[in-house]
Amino acid sequence: MALTDFELKEILTSFGITPVAITPCSIGLINATYFVDTSDRRYVLQRINTAVFSDPRGVMDNIASVTAHLREKGISTLTFLPADDGNCYLENEHGFFRLSLCLDGKTYNEATPELLEKAAEAFGEFQYALTDFDASLLKETIPDFHNTPVRTEALWEAVAIAPNERIAAAVDAIQQAKQFSSQASYIMSLLSRGDLPLRVVHNDTKVNNVLLAEDGTATVLDLDTVMPGSLLFDFGDAIRSGASTKPEGDGDIEGFAIDKERYEAFLRGFLKGIRGALTPNEQKLLPFGAFVLAYELGVRFLTDYLRGDVYFRTSYPEENLIRAKGQLALAKNIFFRLDELSALTKKYI
Ligand code: GN1
Ligand code: MG
Fold it and tell me: Residues near ligand 1 with C-beta < 6 Å?
């Protein structure tokens, strides 16, 4: 439910803030976000979606320890402000809220290769800075977040109980999800065998989650899903979102493919930021990670469509199905170009 200006002002008062303007921001599919202007600076107020993040305090604890670690290393990061009880969040009858400083800079849904390379360096640096962070300190706030076989299983369960009209509309997409399900579980099997290292990962490396400032500072945003996982999740998610010829949700399904120039740009930046801290398996599987993450998100959008759009925010009835088809088409494109993308990757390693 949307909040009234009066309710928003009351929340901001608890954070010691007197707004002169409050502007809703439509970016992000999960939380509700507002830009808040006071007479001297801008803040970001968010209401956490507690249906998705059932342990919002755990989310904020993870964020507090990761941002402290980054700040200690001189890396630009988010700053959350205390409410009047001293906690960096506020819980009331309207939900769970947090307020952060709005930093200077811009985010891009479709970045040029140059900007993408800068964003990639920030994600690489983020990974590198957390190599000495004890992953056991983090809570798994969304269990199995990038566990692809678990996501696929949830799709088959949704297929079993979905209404006929939705099944009929999604029949091709379901078929495509079936076609690639066993290949897409490969990363999880390597992780569980210990053949890939478990690291602290961001888990939502959409390119618009990096803020680029004019002075060259790049800040990794949206730390809600920072949890243990594989580095391939971060690389893969960034490629599927930042190096695609079509943006997420575009209706031109046939047009979805990997853009080689943008792939290379991201790879260059990421490798620079992570300074060689990759294992041989991680190096080898970078393009495969992009296939898996595009596939997995396609499966998640499709599952949500079949369940009646209960998870991702939508603005029209078929949106999750269109999103799913685009991501599954992208996964297919990457899968059949793995040799080409691997050869391209080797040039930089
Ligand atoms: C969600 O809301 P946002 O944009 O931060 C989702 C990601 C998806 C993304 C797709 C917690 O992220 O996993 O990749 O949408 N976050 C969660 O746009 O599920
Ligand atoms: Mg996110």
Answer: 28-30, 52, 204, 206, 222, 225, 248, 297
